[in-house]
């Protein structure tokens, strides 16, 4: 399994998704899908540790990560605000692939200069950019070569100067946010101290968070170390303290190392971060560089490369073009940047233990990214689940969004009860370390908060998509209650879980309501816990399939995508299509697999094939929409493997894989995926223009697999899944459907199945 590991890791291109979508000209089904949201991945190429607390990247102030050339965009093609790639320095803490989530990071800007301090904030052009997992480098137009690497809670900068009589490395403690309207972040309180001998420390309170840094530097002996305020040196000063800062009173302040430089002079800056004070920030740096800090850059870079390799060693695929392998490898990389795990770092409660933040787009991540994370690293999955429960215990709610900040976006309006799906999956997989009795208490309490109060009383709530969320939340809570032996409570919860039916009208679609970033068509094909009854509500398999066919554009004409705002009538025309939004938006990202429940896995194969072929590519424009903290990239990983997780249901649907074979280490066990038949003519061999492949038959651990799914326990438990592919649809998985909450009678639609029948 290790033979191709280095090649897979080396295939990662962190620049994918940093520019507007530039993809193969869509054909067939993909040409009928209409994209309403911003057509850009919103990723950044900065140095990242897998699931680490710290990232570091060149900062221009552009939207939304701080890197790049573009301004705010929520729909269509984003407009550039800069003509070139620029940087005023290099900042820490970035989002990954998000859209609008109010405020942004980019703290502790570090700027190497050979110019006067007066021009701090100038944006220099970037040249010769290089990015790989854990490493970013670029040359500023003033000739300084800049390199960044990070550890879990650390960052190391290395700057190589041209000859200069007065070179300097400037740290701006006051900087934060983006160079857009209402985008700056102002520290409320701050303090920094120059400790001498290349060391300093400080804390800034940003968005309610006390973020501390400890700094150790390796500078030439002739260089000086001093603090500065309002772009002026504070000669002889070693401290700056600010008890209260307003926007109107803010003046830049920070620390500076300066002196003469010969050509090739290097300065290394090593930084430890913490949300629990400067002492812990120093300990974090010492833990990353035990013994001494010498040669810190190469040591941290090697450690982080090894950490990335640890994850990439668990996923190996065979076959496919170099381009497809690059997209796959980069998708796996983007899937493992967020959320941020920061053990013992919570600034909100005093006790030690798991702390996870930057669950910024949970309404997308819970479908694809969380199941991938838990498969690759069950211990991290357990820590994340425990952290969610701790948030509820300490702060009163299970979160919907959760960043390194105080604010209302923790418990937001996009969705309800999503943590319940994560916890239900974790319980069914047997994740260790959680007090499930206590988790159940918080899950119950949370179901009555926010929109849940109206749902509990009326059985329906608007936005109506929250009715589906809450019904699923009750179902997931019932799973844990029954598993813990409280059958009376489980029965009560399951009764509430059936109220999903109130969200639907007579036409087999959701009722008219308001919807977050989408319409009732986009939200109507969620993979509910009772898909059998949901299909009956639409009139049966044939009628449900007909509605899906219309949604996915079968028989429809190609559409025209949005351009650069402002738009004309094309936006309203596009909305009126009520069409699949492709992978540009995530509310309907699981909809292609709804066909499995109607006995049409061939349709799933066609749609997934079209998405893989035409909505992902290489180069900076290789994503069709916001990566949303890795949710979109995780979709690509699962789809390429021919699998799809059904959140909260311990279920993985099986489809035609995009590669000839895959060796996976999921749940700590080896899982082998092998395709035969016409696999080499599928998307793994050639993307755009290739034809979809269909599953003809399947075997799991040597036994026929006649149904189109396996359980999460089977995937995590290891085994061998053999899939025979062919160029035409077959009757595979058309009789036994994926399990639903209700028993389905035997009929022409095929027999239902309970999940317990398929557990090992």
From TrEMBL:
Gene3D superfamilies assigned to the protein according to its UniProt record, in alphabetical order: 2.70.98.10, alpha-1,2-mannosidase, alpha-1,2-mannosidases domains, GH92 mannosidase domain
Domain Glycosyl hydrolase family: residue ranges: 280-727
Hydrolase as UniProt keyword: yes
Residue ranges of every copy of the Glycosyl hydrolase family 92 N-terminal domain listed in the record: 12-274
Pfam families in the cross-refs: Glyco_hydro_92, Glyco_hydro_92N
Top-level lineage group: Bacteria
Keyword Nucleotide-binding: no
Keywords, in A-Z order: Hydrolase
GO function terms (MF aspect): hydrolase activity
Identification of the protein by name: Glycoside hydrolase domain-containing protein
Organism of derivation: Glycomyces rhizosphaerae
